[in-house]
Amino acid sequence: MAGHKIKLQSNDGDIFDVELEIANQAITIKTMLEDLGMGEEGEVIPLPNVSSAILKKVIQWATHHKGDPPLPEDDENGEKNTNDISLWDQEFLKVDQGTLFELIL
């Protein structure tokens, strides 16, 4: 449903209104919503391991990638293809090591 919004709550109590389609771009959030049967309109989804600063970055990334086609499967030897990382993503990931670590969790 276009425009369907949920509320993501960071571990420091900040609440972010996010379209479900955008939230689902973050695979960890999508999996959590599916596994726990969450995602009703306006429902507050607590993310106890995510700070506001990191959640803002995740939402920024997910908003940029809203509507992107699914990523192709890894090749047969299990290696990730890093040749196709967009310039936007390269710039987005120019953060300190601690922030990068939190983003990939």
Q: Which fold name is given in CATH as the topology?
A: Potassium Channel Kv1.1, Chain A
CATH class: Alpha Beta
Rg over CA atoms, rounded to whole Å, is: 15 Å
| Largest sheet features | 3 strands, mixed
Number of helices: 5
Give the strand content. 5-15%
Segments where pLDDT lies below 50 for 5+ residues?
Answer: none
Summarize the structure.
The chain is of the alpha+beta class and 105 residues long.
Written account of the structure:
- It is a single chain.
- The model has no long low-confidence stretch (mean pLDDT 86).
- It contains five helices and three strands, in the order ββααβααα.
- It starts with a strand and ends with a helix.
- Strand 1 (5-9) and strand 2 (15-19) form a beta hairpin.
- The protein has one domain (5-104): Potassium Channel Kv1.1, Chain A (2-Layer Sandwich), CATH 3.30.710.
- The chain is an alpha+beta fold and 105 residues long.
- A three-stranded mixed β-sheet has the order 2-1-3.
- It has helices at 20-23, 27-36, 52-64, 87-92, 97-104, and strands spanning 5-9, 15-19, 44-46.
Layout of SSEs?
Blueprint: E1 5-9, E2 15-19, H1 20-23, H2 27-36, E3 44-46, H3 52-64, H4 87-92, H5 97-104
Which descriptors apply to this entry?
12% strand; 3-stranded mixed β-sheet; alpha+beta; 5 helices; single chain; Potassium Channel Kv1.1, Chain A; 105 residues
